Amino acid sequence: MAKTPSFTCSSCGARYTKWSGRCDNCGEWNTIAEETALSSAGPAKKSLGNARGKAMALSDLSTQETPPPRTTSGLGELDRVLGGGLVPASAILVGGDPGIGKSTLLLQAAAAFARKGLKTIYVSGEEASAQVRMRANRLDLTDAPVQLAAETNLRDILTTLEAERPALAIIDSIQTMWADNVDSAPGSVSQVRAAAHELTSFAKRVGISVILVGHVTKEGQIAGPRVVEHMVDTVLYFEGERGHQFRVLRAVKNRFGPADEIGVFEMTGNGLAEVLNPSALFLSERGDPTPGSAVFAGIEGTRPVLVEFQALVAPSPHSQPRRTVVGWDGSRLAMILAVLEARCGIPFAGLDVYLNVAGGMKVSEPAADLAVAAALLSAREDAALPADTVVFGEISLSGALRAVSQTENRLKEAQKLGFTSAITPAGGKSAPSSDMKLTKMRDLASFVGETFGAG
Ligand code: TYD
Ligand code: MG
User: Fold this and answer.
1) Which of the residues 151, 153, 321, 455 has an alpha carbon 20 to 30 A from that of 38?
2) Do 163 and 269 sit in the same domain of this protein?
3) Could you list the residue range(s) of the whole structural domain that residue 259 is in?
4) For position 184, what pLDDT does the model report?
5) Quick one: 29 and 115 in the same domain?
6) 267 ligand 1 Cβ < 6 A
7) Are residues 171 and 266 both part of a single domain?
8) CB distance 85 to ligand 1 below 6 Å
9) Ligand 1 in reach of 132 Cβ (< 6 A)
10) What is the mean pLDDT of residues 218-246?
11) Domain co-membership, 298 together with 429
12) pTM to 2 decimals?
């Protein structure tokens, strides 16, 4: 069989038959490199339909399935993100920036599961065993019955796992793994894909759970092909800002539990500590009421979380004013600025706009629209919002405010943290039973008029 060259984009994993400077799929430059084909077997010559396969066992939808038995680690924040504990024979990918604390988290998780009686093997491809042991010492985990190895050769790892049959294997990281049947360097798309495929199919076949650690690129993708995300059951991202001690473990995909669930940790001198009340932590740096600050009562996964939006609006020296956002979607900000201008007559032309979520948290709920608008207006008008008020609601392009889900949970959390009033959209199904003073708004223009006396 003549070998056809294969080129793969290292950013998105798209495949091409010839090289080009720019990937048509993701638009990245200089990411396409030649890769040798994954399997040496040629394409099937006969159409599959002509071959005789085995008859599949079919079952109807009413077949009773017992939910998978789960093992909890005792690290509540981790168990929550996993959907209630570790499912046997599941494959999990944990992604995050280098240095964010993935190895720390997984060593703590390994120790916690091992102490619960799961046979656990931790394979480090990045650090020597001595280094891992030093970290274990710092984290006070040396007594946990975790088996360690420093290895990057996938064949040796699989042989060992096959013989040892642990319940859980942690591979730190997938980018350092090297399959000797694939002809390219560790960290390349082919290697990452082959290693992930071998490890996940091995996990399913032998019945062990694997946790793969993956580094994330600047753009926030797991370095290497996206296909790794499709191979695993669960994808977790470990995120946070370097300067902050908070770390958020976020489920972006979970076949065994709700996606969007978050677990919050704090990086301390001796490892990651669970944060049982994230709202209190995210609001802890809030001082006296200042212009540009609005507290959003949000929902992350199944749990309400309060965060502070901070905005700064200042005359711009540039012909094209700046729009800088941290922790929130830039195009959503553009939309809210446009609605404020078109529906409420409040222009932001000629003004630089900076928007930030305090504490390094990332918010993606549309329910934060009204809090963003409140922070922007408060900054622009140089008028602080009342300190005891939370804000939430979705803004539509017409300027109308839309009711959002779980109003009652949001209000309860706000009340728990000492807030006494809330600005919310009018409408919604039921009147929530709460002692909070509610100011209900139909549209953004009336919010502007009532809160800032402008508009
Ligand atoms: P690490 O887990 O090595 O990150 P990753 O595996 O994601 O690259 O953690 C690196 C950072 O965490 C490092 O800068 C030191 C810090 N750290 C602490 O602050 N406290 C600790 O107890 C540990 C183990 C690490
Ligand atoms: Mg690491």
Assistant:
1) 151
2) yes
3) 76-276
4) 83
5) no
6) yes
7) yes
8) no
9) no
10) 80
11) yes
12) 0.81
Q: What percent of the chain has pLDDT over 70?
A: 90
DSSP 242-284: TTSSEEEEEEEEETTS-TT-EEEEEEETTEEEE-S-HHHHHTT
Q: What is the pLDDT of residue 433?
A: 65
- The neighbourhood of ligand 2, an ion, using CB within 5 A, equals 103
At 58, the pLDDT band (50, 70, 90 cuts) reads confident
- What separation in Å is there between the alpha carbon of 218 and the centre of ligand 2? 17
316 pLDDT exceeds 70?
A: yes
From CA 138, how far away is CA 49, in angstroms rounded?
Answer: 59
Which ligand gives the minimal distance to the CA of 176?
A: 2
Tell me what pLDDT residue 276 has. 87
Residues 5 and 145 in one domain: no
CATH of the domain at 185: 3.40.50.300
DSSP state of 22: B
User: Does ligand 1 come within 6 angstroms of the Cβ of 412?
Assistant: no
How far apart are the CA of 157 and the centre of ligand 2, in A? 18
Residues 251, 299: one domain?
A: no
pLDDT of amino acid 40: 43
Cβ–ligand 1 contact at 103 (below 6 Å): yes
Minimal-distance CA residue to ligand 1 atom 1 = 101
Residue 71 within a domain = no
**Cα dihedral: 102, 357, 444, 454 (round 10):** 180
Rounded to the nearest angstrom, the distance between the alpha carbon of 136 and the centre of ligand 2 is 13
Q: Is 215 in the pocket of ligand 1 (CB under 6 A)?
A: no
Same domain, 255 and 391: no
Q: Determine the Cα–Cα distance for residues 19 and 30; give it in Å rounded to an integer.
A: 10
SS3 371: helix
Confidence class for position 435, pLDDT limits 50, 70, 90? confident
Query: Is 247 a pocket residue for ligand 1 (Cβ < 6 Å)?
Result: no
How far apart are alpha carbons 62 and 301 in whole angstroms?
Answer: 29
Residue 108 tokens, joined: 């703590």
Mutational test site, ligand 1, from 267, 272, 274, max ligand atoms within 8 Å of CB: 267
> What DSSP element (H or E) covers 441?
strand 437-441
Q: Which of 246, 276, 306 is the last residue of a domain?
A: 276
What pLDDT is stored for residue 225 in this prediction? Answer: 59
pLDDT in tens, 10-51: 777 788 888 888 888 888 887 787 765 444 444 444 566 666
Going by CA atoms, what residue is nearest to atom 8 of ligand 1?
99
